[in-house]
Amino acid sequence: MAGGAAPRGFSPGMAAGAGGGGGETPSNPPERQDYIFRNGRRYVRPYYFEFISHVKNRWAGKTIVDLFTDEFKGRPREYYVRAVNCGRLQVDDQMVHTDYIVQSSQKISHFLHRHEPPVLGGDITILQNEVDVVTVCKPALVPVHPCGQYRKNTVVGILQAEHGLASLFPVHRLDRLVSGLLIFAKNADKAESFRQQIETSLLQKEYVAKVVGVFPDGEQIVDANVHFNAREGRSTAEVCDGNGKAPIGKQACTKFQRICTDGTHSIVLCKPVTGRTHQIRVHLKHIGYPIANDEVYLSENFSPRSSKGTRINRATTLACSLPSSEPDSCADVGNKDTEVGEEFSIDPMCTNCPNLAPLGYDADEEGLWLHCVRYTGPDWSYECPYPDWVFLDNVSGKKLKS
C-alpha cells in the first residue's frame, strides 16, 4: 500500500460514528449489490469502515501502540505497530508514529475490513405502504436498526437497499430473535404522533408464542416486576416476598390466553400491558410455560452471554486487517440470484477473509417462537400474518386466523 494510505476507496469520515461506534452516512448507504445469498442466508460483502473512539482519561499518556496492546488484546503488539505505520490507526485524522503519546479526548480512527454476521435470506415483506407509515413483517434473526456488529444487515438497511425506503422512524422495536409486525413512520411528525400515543398508553400490542406444556384455559394475568441484567443478557421476574423487601425491577404486566394446544406445546396469545426487556419471555418462564425454543429461559443453568465463546468480543471486533503491498478494495460479488461461487476482493491479512461471516458467528442460531401479530391505536390497527410454527399438528382447540 503506497505511502501508508488507508484502504483504497476509503477516506476518514466515510462511515464514522461517535464514541466507539459507527452508523450509516450518506457516503456509504446500503445498496442492493452489497448482499450475497448463500444457503438461505443473507451476507454483506466485507467493506472498509472507520471505527472511531475517543481517548479516555485513563488512556491518556500512553503511546498509541501501548494503548491498543493493553486495551484490545485480540491482536499482538506487532499488528498495532504495522497498523500505525500504514495509517490504519490515526489520531485526529492524521498519521502518527508508533511512539506518539495520546491525549485525553483525542479521536482515534481504526480502519477496519468489516464482516457482518449473516441473517436469514429473503426479502423483508412490506405489508402496508401508506403516505406516512410503512409496516413490514420482520423475519427472526434480523435486527431492526444498526447496532453492534450489524449495520447493513438490518431491517432498516435492507428496506433502503431493496425498496428505496430511507429515513424511516421505528415506532417500536423487536428483539433480533423475534419476528413479526414492525411499524415505521416516514416523517418526524408522524413519529411524534405515535410517540405520544405510546407515552399515554393508547397502544395495544399482541404477540403469539409457542410454549412448553398445556397452557391453562382462560385469561392468565401475570403482574410481576421485571429486572434486566445487561451483563447476562436476561431478565428475572420479581414479586413481593412478604418480608417487606421491595422488588428492584420495573413494574410489568402481561395478559395471556391459550389459543390451542396439542398436549405437548401450546400456542398462546400474549398482550403486554407494559414494555420491559424480555417481558413476555420472562413472564412465561415465571408461570412455568417458557417459550419452547428459548434457551435463555428454558434452563436454570443458562450461561451468560458474556462467558460464551461463540460471542465476538470487543477486541476481535476492533481488530482490523493488516495492509498488503497492493491496493485492495471490495469488488462486485454478484447479485441475489447467485447462490455459490461468488468472488470478492479480500484483504489478505484480514482475520475473517476469505470467509464472509465474522469470527465467532453461531451458525446454529434459530429464531425465537415469539411473533408480533398486531398493534392497535385509537383509530388504527396494523396486523401481520402468523408464522408457520403456529399451526400445530393434531391441534384441538381454537382455529387461528391470520
Short description:
Helix content is 14%, strand content 25%. By secondary structure, the protein is α+β, with helices and mostly antiparallel strands. It has a domain at 204-303: 2-Layer Sandwich (Pseudouridine synthase).
Q: Low-confidence runs (pLDDT<50, min 5 residues)?
A: 1-26, 305-342, 394-399
| Percent of residues in β-strands | 25-35%
Helix content: 10-25%
How far the N terminus sits from the C terminus, by CA atoms, comes to 57 Å
CATH fold naming of the domain at 204-303: Pseudouridine synthase
The CATH superfamily of the domain at 204-303 bears the name Pseudouridine synthase
The major β-sheet equals: 11 strands, mixed
Number of helices: 7
Which CATH class of the domain at 204-303? Alpha Beta
Oligomer: single chain
Overall number of strands? 19
Order of helices and strands: EEEHHEEEEEHEEHEEEEEEHHHEEE
Mean pLDDT: 81
Name of the CATH architecture of the domain at 204-303: 2-Layer Sandwich
Q: Output the structural class.
A: alpha+beta
User: What value does the Rg take, in angstroms?
Assistant: 24 Å
User: Given the C-alpha coordinates, what overall shape results?
Assistant: globular
